[in-house]
Amino acid sequence: MQRHELLLGEKGDVSGDFDSMALRLKGLTKWFGPTCPRCAGGDRAALERNYCPECGTVYALRDLSLTLYEGEVLGVVGESGSGKSTILNCLYYDAEPSAGSAYLAAFEGGEVDIFSVSAQAKRGIRNTLLGKVYQNPLQGLKMRFSAVSNVAEKLIAAGGRRVSDMEARAVGLLGHVNIPSYRMREAPEFFSGGMQQRVQIAKALSNNPPVLLLDEVTTGLDLSVQAKVLDLVKQIQRELGISMLLVSHDLSVVRMLAERTIVMLGGEVVEEGLTDQILEDPQEPYTQELVHSML
Amino acid sequence: MRSEALYNFAFFDEGSKREVRRAILKAVAIPGYQVPFASREMPIARGWGTGGLQLTLSLVGKDDVLKVIDQGADESVNAVSIKRLVKGTTGIRTTEDARAATIVQSRHRIPEFPLEKGQILVLQVPMPEPLRFVEPSEYATKRLHAEKEYSGAYLALFEEIMKFGRVATGADHPVLVNDRYVMAPSPIPRFDNPKLNGSRALILLGAGREKKIYAVPPFTKVVSLDFEDHPFEAESVAGRKCRFCGAEGVFMDELLDEASGLAAHQCNDTSYCSARRAT
């Protein structure tokens, strides 16, 4: 770990202070099912991969710890069902973690576990300190409300009560993600998939969140649109120095965007390190398989 | 055989009345909070004022005087049917004068004569949930109310400003009650919203189809939602005059005067208009 951080510091091609953490996860665990004495103790031998044959409990995340530093993009790769999206769901309060804690530098100086606070405080964190881009725009946007209103929603939730200010901010952000001004007042249900994804990005950025959660941002988009969205993410990171947790099963996306990458399998981290290092010289059998199956 | 003999007093059995009254007490105790209740099958269809009717039937006593309004009018079919049902099963007096009634059941209007202490206004509600337009799940809206998370209600107004350049709620403009719950005031025009604030009469709202009862107790603070740079505005009635009684500054219906071919206005509240003409 130490070695990686040093190396990153030397790269110097991105802004951000890699000495200070933006987000830290400790022992994050999420299971679906009743749990039984056999599997509840965290004994790996009791499970078939991440499934308990005794009670049928599935362990989506097992004792996951990671640190996201300021201004960095951390890639999370792994096959379907490896727990990638569950990390983001727990962090954005879309799912409740079964155990574990998380700390945001921007919340109470990183001293307080953000899973332990009141529902109102959680809403506050979600609306002001985090932004999330969902894989499926249906989850992240109100499809029947205009694009401007969608971006303004987070501003309203954060206490905005001046229409002119919120409108100006929303129009500015939508312009930034290349939504033509004559379409900003249309509802995203009439937009193409790539445009919907860009509206989501604008919405996620509306409150200048210190941490952005990206869940498969380019999956399902055609290649030229993919490139545009990737460019945009890269540009945002460079200009605003926002820390990002980037979940993807597409290794080329991770190669392009992330400095550091973790590889997940069955709810656990099997390998972590610099993205280049992981892609060029994978150590774990699963990572080797993953890299070799890249086209 | 007379209907009074066929049915228990006020149609309902005593247990049903007690259940509705219990919901009313809770609603009064938590202004603006939607209390679920066991909405009963009524002899009129759901969506035709069954919520209001159940409130009225659970409240009436032998000395009560009832007025029923349907969109400002006393004589429309719905108002007359409800009045006849209550009268037929209780034998109480009915009136058209808002000042003489002890219970005023109304659809879409608050009477022009200010209601006084001791009177009860019962409003019929089609959609009690002010956040339903932005959040279809009841489970989710209940949580939003619990956490006082009302950005959805503001978002709906924001969207109207984006689309039409102004807040365009034709009726049912959401209000914040007692600084706590955002409430749908039933489809009254924005013109009537200020009458909710600090009302001297008890206001009860009943949604039969949606099975909810809520209340604005007397002298409760009620604020219509708005933005700093788009303050709440009632429909303007400036320059309009009732063609029958000459009233100004009340909510008007606009009609085509067939003789002149021009727009003509008359009081929407028919009993207010006739009371003015009688004096």
- Mean of pLDDT of chain B: 94
Low-confidence stretches of chain A: 1-16
Provide the CATH architecture of the largest domain in chain B.
3-Layer(aba) Sandwich
Rg of chain B over CA atoms, rounded to whole Å, is 19 Å
Euclidean distance between termini CA atoms of chain A: 29 Å
Major sheet characteristics of chain B? 7 strands, mixed
CATH H level of the largest domain in chain B: which superfamily?
Bacterial phosphonate metabolism protein PhnH
Describe the structure.
The complex is a heterodimer of chains A (295) and B (279). Chain A has 2 domains: 2-129 and 209-292, P-loop containing nucleotide triphosphate hydrolases (Rossmann fold); 137-208, no CATH class. Chain A contains 12 helices and 9 strands. Chain A has helices at residues 2-11, 37-40, 84-91, 119-128, 137-140, 147-157, 163-176, 193-205, 223-240, 251-257, 275-280, 285-292; strands spanning 21-32, 58-69, 73-78, 99-104, 130-133, 211-215, 243-247, 260-265, 268-274. In chain A, the strands form 2 sheets. A 6-stranded mixed β-sheet of chain A has the order 5-6-7-3-8-9, sandwiched between helices. In chain A, strands 2-1-4 form a 3-stranded antiparallel β-sheet, with helices on one face. In chain A, helix 9 (223-240) links the parallel strand 6 and strand 7. In chain A, helix 6 packs across helix 7 (163-176), helix 6 packs parallel to helix 8 (193-205) and helix 8 packs parallel to helix 9. Chain A starts with a helix and ends with a helix. Chain B is α/β, with parallel strands linked by helices and 279 residues long. In chain B, 29% of the residues lie in helices and 19% in strands. Chain B has helices at 3-6, 14-29, 50-59, 77-90, 138-146, 151-164, 193-196, 270-278, and strands at 35-36, 65-70, 93-94, 103-107, 120-124, 175-177, 181-183, 202-207, 212-216, 222-224, 252-257, 262-267. In chain B, a hairpin with a 3-residue loop joins strand 6 (175-177) and strand 7 (181-183). Chain B is globular, with a radius of gyration of 19 Å. Chain B starts with a helix and ends with a helix. The mean pLDDT of chain B is 94. At the A-B interface, helix 4, helix 6 and helix 7 of A face helix 6 of B.
